[in-house]
């Protein structure tokens, strides 16, 4: 995948993860500003994920109807406006509404670049492209948590919102300057035949559930870790430093995926290895519960994420070449709704070892039933 396409696509795909990582260090300040308990502040992630889920459907449809570039431009302008608008929120409910719409807008950064890549590549080349994007995405935790911690330390959650607004505007300008329009023609409209075809595709929805479980395992750290470090009286910098560790783990997963694909490993073998890593991380988190080194338990979890996600997403829509944007949107809608429900459960439960255990068990069960 040439650099002039890889760089903006990677930056766009990183943006939703960066938003999540940016918010994480700001949660204690947000909870303090609105006099909220930790569980209530952590609902920000669930609301954002719910908006994101609706957004993937909206922008997937729009990218097929009006084109990839116009959809991305509209979405990034909306995201910049909502993040700026949240700065003026008179109540937490208002802020959540702004973040739901910002999540809806940020979804274009996931669905449109993926559609663009699927327009340009297929087969083994597509898997390699996804793996390269995965290696770029591995920098998200390090950049997001470290930069988010700096922003939260110097301006609280308001500086985080301002930075996200400016980043949205910058991405809009970059994508307009760099990305081509790849829509092959007017997309297949949403029809009963397409819905029936997708609803009958059990393999597709199993993939969606596995993607959701991996994302909830990843996202639970961002939602709960700030309050765990605070409870353990660890230095505030510890959360930002853990981002570098998680970035290395994600890079290791993506690099391992590339190497094993080159050696001829098939998708089932790679997913079984990911399941073992995820289970190992859940057990390690149980062992390190109450220890300030608990971030070490996330290393196998994030490695599993980097290993499995390219193999779940890359070939998922091979049978839907005639409607990639819309099919991709429906597919992503389901797994983001599952992520949103999962993150709501995470904020209510508040147990990182428990969440990882459930995610590992569910992923393994789905893999066995393939």
From TrEMBL:
GO CC: one term? plasma membrane
Principal subcellular localization:
membrane
Which Pfam families does this one have? Answer: MFS_1 (PF07690)
Q: Does the keyword Transmembrane helix apply?
A: yes
Specify the domain of life of the species encoding this protein: Bacteria
- Cell compartments where the protein resides: Cell membrane
Q: Sorted alphabetically, which PROSITE patterns does this protein's record hold?
A: MFS (PS50850)
Instruction: Keyword check for Metal-binding, yes or no.
Output: no
Q: How does it sit in the membrane?
A: Multi-pass membrane protein
Q: What is this protein called?
A: Drug resistance translocase
Q: What is the lineage of its organism?
A: Bacteria, Pseudomonadati, Pseudomonadota, Betaproteobacteria, Burkholderiales
